[in-house]
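@channel sequence for tomorrow's demo:
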Amino acid sequence: MTKNKIKIRALLRFGLLAVLIAFLVFISYELGIIEFFLNEEKLKNFINSLGPLGFVGFILIQAFQVVAAPIPGEVTGLLGGYLYGTVGGAILSTIGLTLGSVIAFILGRIFGKPFVERVVDPVILNKFDYLLHHKGAFLVFFLFLIPGFPKDYLSYFLGLSRLSVLEFTIIAGIGRLLGTVLLSLGGSYLRHHEYVKFLSLAGVAIVIMIIVWMFKDKMERLFRIWHIKKYKRDKERKKNKTTT
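structure tokens (generated this afternoon):
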């Protein structure tokens, strides 16, 4: 009887959350919020309109675009560098992106697998399900370093893992830093009309992205094999300790 009550409560909680998400998505499209996040000029005008509190608005925008995973972060990343320079943009973006990642992580942990399966692409769930069997903090950190990797979706997914909130916060903050700095640098170039430098940076980024995507499947396969082997070794080590 108790188990049935727990299941019913879990279903009700999940049902209410699903309705809330559907409502928020509907309102977002109706009010043009999605379009707003995709329009750099509108974002810039909104942040400027906040005056001294503009940096707070920018942090919240960065956090929201992580939680609303389909919204690309490149626009807001460039905007941070444009408005606040390379260093200021990188710092504020890192705070916002880390905050959004932690929120996604906590939502995944609180509402569990049924919620994550609705938010995260099934392909990503199948590819990285091995991360749920062992902490693998170093491997997760390495995945966060890879340019173009779906870090927003991974944040929700990792809520199901054995990582603690603190471990994930550190990984998300440092792991996103390289891409954040590059986007902030690009935004700074645009602000100072240094278009040759911007195009050079964009060219390097595109080359890196192409190389990563060419070897992405092989890298992911190697990560999976390495992680599973490590998990088995650790399990065997624990088993040996208990028997001695």
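heads up for whoever presents: The CA atoms of residues 1 and 192 lie 67 Å apart.
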